[in-house]
Design a protein that fits this description.
With 152 residues, this protein is mainly alpha-helical. It has helices spanning 7-28, 30-60; strands at residues 91-94, 99-103, 143-146.
Protein backbone atom coordinates (compact mmCIF):
# COMPACT_ATOMS: atom_id res chain seq x y z
CA UNK A 1 0.00 0.00 0.00
CA UNK A 2 1.33 3.39 -1.01
CA UNK A 3 1.52 6.19 1.63
CA UNK A 4 2.24 9.93 1.19
CA UNK A 5 2.17 12.20 -1.82
CA UNK A 6 4.22 12.14 -4.96
CA UNK A 7 6.44 15.05 -5.88
CA UNK A 8 4.12 16.00 -8.74
CA UNK A 9 1.10 16.14 -6.40
CA UNK A 10 2.99 18.38 -3.97
CA UNK A 11 4.13 20.70 -6.75
CA UNK A 12 0.58 21.02 -8.08
CA UNK A 13 -0.78 21.90 -4.62
CA UNK A 14 2.01 24.42 -3.96
CA UNK A 15 1.43 25.95 -7.41
CA UNK A 16 -2.31 26.32 -6.79
CA UNK A 17 -1.66 27.88 -3.36
CA UNK A 18 0.83 30.28 -4.93
CA UNK A 19 -1.68 31.37 -7.56
CA UNK A 20 -4.37 31.88 -4.91
CA UNK A 21 -1.98 33.87 -2.70
CA UNK A 22 -0.88 36.08 -5.61
CA UNK A 23 -4.50 36.71 -6.62
CA UNK A 24 -5.42 37.60 -3.05
CA UNK A 25 -2.44 39.94 -2.74
CA UNK A 26 -3.35 41.74 -5.97
CA UNK A 27 -6.99 42.01 -4.89
CA UNK A 28 -6.23 43.40 -1.44
CA UNK A 29 -3.28 45.61 -2.53
CA UNK A 30 -1.92 46.30 0.95
CA UNK A 31 0.15 49.33 -0.14
CA UNK A 32 -2.94 51.08 -1.51
CA UNK A 33 -4.81 50.25 1.69
CA UNK A 34 -2.04 51.80 3.81
CA UNK A 35 -2.03 54.90 1.61
CA UNK A 36 -5.80 55.15 1.85
CA UNK A 37 -5.60 54.89 5.64
CA UNK A 38 -2.89 57.56 5.85
CA UNK A 39 -4.91 59.87 3.60
CA UNK A 40 -8.02 59.39 5.74
CA UNK A 41 -5.98 60.24 8.84
CA UNK A 42 -4.61 63.39 7.16
CA UNK A 43 -8.10 64.56 6.25
CA UNK A 44 -9.39 63.92 9.77
CA UNK A 45 -6.41 65.68 11.33
CA UNK A 46 -6.84 68.76 9.15
CA UNK A 47 -10.55 68.88 9.98
CA UNK A 48 -9.67 68.85 13.70
CA UNK A 49 -7.15 71.65 13.19
CA UNK A 50 -9.74 73.55 11.15
CA UNK A 51 -12.23 73.40 14.04
CA UNK A 52 -9.53 74.55 16.47
CA UNK A 53 -8.62 77.47 14.19
CA UNK A 54 -12.24 78.61 14.06
CA UNK A 55 -12.43 78.52 17.88
CA UNK A 56 -9.21 80.54 18.03
CA UNK A 57 -10.62 83.06 15.55
CA UNK A 58 -13.81 83.44 17.61
CA UNK A 59 -11.71 84.19 20.70
CA UNK A 60 -9.10 86.48 19.09
CA UNK A 61 -10.61 88.00 15.94
CA UNK A 62 -7.81 86.68 13.72
CA UNK A 63 -6.06 83.43 12.90
CA UNK A 64 -2.64 82.65 14.42
CA UNK A 65 0.46 83.49 12.40
CA UNK A 66 1.99 80.02 12.82
CA UNK A 67 1.20 76.56 14.17
CA UNK A 68 3.69 74.33 15.95
CA UNK A 69 2.89 70.83 14.67
CA UNK A 70 3.20 68.12 17.29
CA UNK A 71 2.84 70.54 20.21
CA UNK A 72 -0.08 71.22 22.52
CA UNK A 73 -2.31 74.16 21.62
CA UNK A 74 -4.63 74.42 24.58
CA UNK A 75 -7.49 75.07 24.98
CA UNK A 76 -8.16 74.64 21.27
CA UNK A 77 -6.69 71.18 20.65
CA UNK A 78 -4.73 68.82 22.88
CA UNK A 79 -1.94 68.37 20.37
CA UNK A 80 -1.51 69.69 16.84
CA UNK A 81 -1.16 66.56 14.71
CA UNK A 82 1.75 65.69 12.46
CA UNK A 83 1.54 63.92 9.13
CA UNK A 84 1.41 60.12 9.62
CA UNK A 85 4.41 59.69 7.29
CA UNK A 86 7.57 61.34 8.66
CA UNK A 87 8.80 62.48 5.22
CA UNK A 88 5.65 64.56 4.68
CA UNK A 89 4.33 67.50 6.67
CA UNK A 90 1.28 69.69 7.01
CA UNK A 91 1.59 73.26 5.75
CA UNK A 92 -0.17 76.21 7.37
CA UNK A 93 -0.26 79.76 6.05
CA UNK A 94 -2.25 82.65 7.49
CA UNK A 95 -2.95 86.23 6.49
CA UNK A 96 -4.61 86.87 9.85
CA UNK A 97 -8.09 86.99 8.32
CA UNK A 98 -7.73 83.81 6.26
CA UNK A 99 -5.79 80.56 6.56
CA UNK A 100 -4.72 77.75 4.28
CA UNK A 101 -3.94 74.19 5.47
CA UNK A 102 -2.34 71.73 3.07
CA UNK A 103 -1.23 68.10 3.01
CA UNK A 104 0.06 65.60 0.49
CA UNK A 105 -2.38 62.78 -0.30
CA UNK A 106 -0.40 59.68 -1.23
CA UNK A 107 -3.17 58.42 -3.50
CA UNK A 108 -3.10 61.70 -5.48
CA UNK A 109 -5.58 61.73 -8.32
CA UNK A 110 -7.11 58.44 -7.12
CA UNK A 111 -8.67 60.40 -4.27
CA UNK A 112 -11.72 62.36 -5.36
CA UNK A 113 -11.06 65.05 -2.75
CA UNK A 114 -7.57 65.90 -4.01
CA UNK A 115 -7.05 69.28 -5.63
CA UNK A 116 -6.83 69.63 -9.41
CA UNK A 117 -6.77 65.89 -10.19
CA UNK A 118 -3.92 65.30 -7.74
CA UNK A 119 -1.91 68.39 -8.71
CA UNK A 120 -1.09 71.36 -6.47
CA UNK A 121 -4.07 73.15 -4.95
CA UNK A 122 -5.04 76.46 -6.53
CA UNK A 123 -4.02 78.49 -3.45
CA UNK A 124 -0.40 78.16 -4.55
CA UNK A 125 -1.12 80.38 -7.52
CA UNK A 126 -2.78 83.04 -5.34
CA UNK A 127 0.13 85.45 -5.59
CA UNK A 128 0.00 86.19 -1.84
CA UNK A 129 3.38 87.36 -0.57
CA UNK A 130 5.16 84.76 1.58
CA UNK A 131 2.89 81.92 0.44
CA UNK A 132 4.75 78.58 0.67
CA UNK A 133 5.67 76.68 -2.48
CA UNK A 134 3.52 73.84 -3.78
CA UNK A 135 5.94 71.15 -2.59
CA UNK A 136 6.22 72.42 1.00
CA UNK A 137 4.33 69.30 2.16
CA UNK A 138 7.35 67.14 1.30
CA UNK A 139 5.74 66.38 -2.07
CA UNK A 140 3.05 68.15 -4.06
CA UNK A 141 0.45 69.69 -1.73
CA UNK A 142 -2.65 68.23 -3.35
CA UNK A 143 -5.21 68.48 -0.53
CA UNK A 144 -6.28 71.61 1.30
CA UNK A 145 -8.77 73.08 3.71
CA UNK A 146 -9.15 76.80 4.32
CA UNK A 147 -10.99 79.42 6.27
CA UNK A 148 -14.54 79.95 4.99
CA UNK A 149 -13.62 83.14 3.10
CA UNK A 150 -11.06 81.57 0.69
CA UNK A 151 -10.69 78.33 -1.26
CA UNK A 152 -7.84 75.82 -1.18
Amino acid sequence: MRRGFTLIELLVVVGILGILAATLLVTINPLAQIQKSNDAQRKGDLESVQRALELYYNDNGSYPATLNWGNAWTPYINKLPKDPVSTYSFVYFSTGQAYYLYAHLQRGSSDTQSCNSGNACSGFSSGISGFPNSSACGAVCNYGVTSPNVSP
